[in-house]
Amino acid sequence: MIRTIKESIIIISISVVAGLTANAISPKGVPLIGDYSDRLQVDSTTAAGQVKQERQKTKEGFIKPVNIPVDASKKYFDDGALFIDGREPSEFAQGHIKGAINISYKEFKDLPPEKKSEIMKDIPKNRAIVSYCGGGECEISIDNAYEFAKIGYENVNIYLGGLLEWQSKSYPLNN
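Structure (tokenized):
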């Protein structure tokens, strides 16, 4: 029994070292400690509806979505941007931002890029999109926004305040 435990520890140790070595020498290696501090950072240049025109490309080659505050979200709404709710269809049916469409992240995320593009084929690649979810601790808006950007959408925005903040401002809803 003790021999089996020792052998298991040796095998696991060798596997960990081999995996770390392969990751370190791979050109597509994954960082062991990721910096995701900007994931929830709101772009201050979008405050008061001043939407930044210059967008950054990621190292993967797509245009990075921008986190926007409530006032910029309302400006996008007033200017006719497409709001996409990433929650489940049943949640969307209970209420959503007026005019929004529902693309459930749970259903969308694992589709191949071709299928994602097919679902969004009627949306021009340069159309302003605002991705949102329930707000609060919900991060579906972020994840969905990146999925849209990865298939070529150029003006994707993330409204972190989501439905909760939108409702608190008494902005237009569909119930």
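Helices lie at 2-25, 70-78, 89-94, 105-108, 113-119, 140-150, 162-168. The longest strand covers residues 82-85.
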